Amino acid sequence: KEGAVEFFIPELPDLISKDMEVFYNPFMAINRDFTVLILKAYSKLKAKKLFVADPMSASGVRVLRLLKETNAVEKAFLNDIKKEAIELAQKNLEGHQNVEYFNKDANVFLLENKGFDYIDIDPYGSPVPFLESAIKSLKTGGLIGITATDTASLSGSYPFKAFRRYGSKPLDSEFYHESALRILIKSVIEASFRLDSVLKPVFGFSYRHFLRAFFVKLKGVSKAVDISTKIGYIGYCHSCKFRESYTCILDLPKFCPLCGDFFDYGGPLYIGSIYDNELLNIMKDEDFAHFHKDTVKVFTNILKESSIKSPWFYKANIFGKGIMPKLKQILKDLNAKPTHFSPEGFKTDLDFKYVKEYFEKWA
After folding, report:
1. Assessment of whether the complete model's pTM goes beyond 0.85
2. From CA 151, how far away is CA 31, in angstroms rounded?
3. pLDDT 10s digits, 266-317
4. Domain 26-229+273-303, classified CATH 3.40.50.150, yes or no
5. What is the domain partition of the chain in residue ranges?
């Protein structure tokens, strides 16, 4: 059982892996919760039902939930490269007439079937191999959801792999979860630029072992200019923790402007707002009854932190040892917001020097 649906799955092994006969990961229920949530909101925003594609559908649980928990789907197109997966999906979706099934490679399916209002890219590992075919298959004005589970490389554990896949240098910092998500977003935007399209981020989050971002395909390549100004770099000092964003790598100083130590950096990455306020306002009024408690918690914090412009967050312990104030007091004193990226983290648009001076009184 997941959400409001019951379905058949193979017996789960002790270790979830891509070698399973039909892949199903129960820990990704939060991922699917947010798909249901945003599709309900997007359908209302567009005032129409959507043609939905799931190129790697596995058991079909995502589409099953969309059909059961929303009124957003005009027709669903399920594809999986494994015949066993399609057979199981057909069993799980028995009785639903507005579903079509395919047994092909995901990229072949996307290139042969175009004009979708929503495409879900949720692979095991990196989404990079599927980006171009998905963008080509997405209708102008359409929505696309993209998952990355190779968080170790995006977060900085394997920086050369991140550079190879995403063309960016990860940043080793307390806010590595957020910079990882922003690198993923930048990579998706650049993939759209190469195809003379423009994808704009409208929602994103980090949870456990995966990153998830949603984009709308804009009409007119002229909008690429505005989006490109939001791609840049974050400079970071490992000594004093000073950070600053830059739109040009040539503007990055070699040494920290505050303490003079070596100045590290991450990027290029997306430094603009990840969230669309109009979509958020519709999402917050939806029914959360069938969602996991963590979905509710993550979304509640996103509603709060979405008002902050800074592309990073802080943790009190980076400023030294001592009896630090509780998070509730920090939020009040620094006009800050909690963040879903970390239970100890907080986001604020206050100048770094003010934040540092505040904690030096406690350290």
Report:
1. yes
2. 15
3. 999 999 999 999 999 999 999 999 999 999 999 999 999 999 999 999 999 9
4. yes
5. 26-229+273-303, 314-360
